[in-house]
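queue> pop job 88
queue> type: inverse folding (structure -> sequence)
queue> payload:
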């Protein structure tokens, strides 16, 4: 009798708001997603304190698999996507789009009129995602935007 391969059942990813208890896992996720420039824990902590309703995560019941973090001006005239990350094992499955669509709906609902973001000019997958969501490049690549050698493409979406 031949043994059948064992497949781990795929866990359904639940989109939800972040909780204070998630901050350690969020820091690990951010470090995996952006190993060259992760947010320090204390920055994520402060962003949670300032923007708790604009920090969404994808949770499979055992671990966080993605997040989106948005900062919104006090007058709600504009927001910035400050982070969008998906674990390596979940990339290419539409989770980034799901997070972005959810947060853009949230921002529309509170009256935000413009959403801005920056993206590495070499991150073609992210640029394509943002373009399909309606973001346009504000200008050519900004050299040294985040410091020497850290060029970024600035993009904007009018809601």
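queue> result:
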């Amino acid at each position: 009798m031949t043994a059948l391969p064992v497949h781990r059942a795929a866990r359904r990813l639940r989109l939800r708001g972040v909780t204070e208890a998630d901050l350690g896992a969020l820091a690990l996720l951010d470090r995996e997603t952006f190993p060259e420039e992760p947010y320090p824990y204390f920055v994520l902590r402060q962003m949670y304190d300032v923007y708790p309703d604009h920090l969404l995560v994808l949770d499979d019941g055992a671990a966080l698999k993605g997040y989106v973090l948005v900062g919104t001006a006090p007058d709600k005239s504009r927001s910035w996507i400050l982070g969008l990350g998906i674990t390596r094992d979940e990339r290419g499955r539409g989770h980034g789009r799901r997070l972005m669509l959810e947060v853009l709906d949230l921002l529309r609902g509170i009256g935000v009129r413009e959403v801005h973001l920056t993206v590495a000019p070499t991150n073609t997958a992210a640029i394509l995602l943002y373009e399909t969501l309606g973001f346009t490049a504000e200008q050519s690549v900004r050299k040294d935007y985040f410091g020497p050698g850290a060029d970024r493409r600035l993009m904007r979406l009018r809601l």
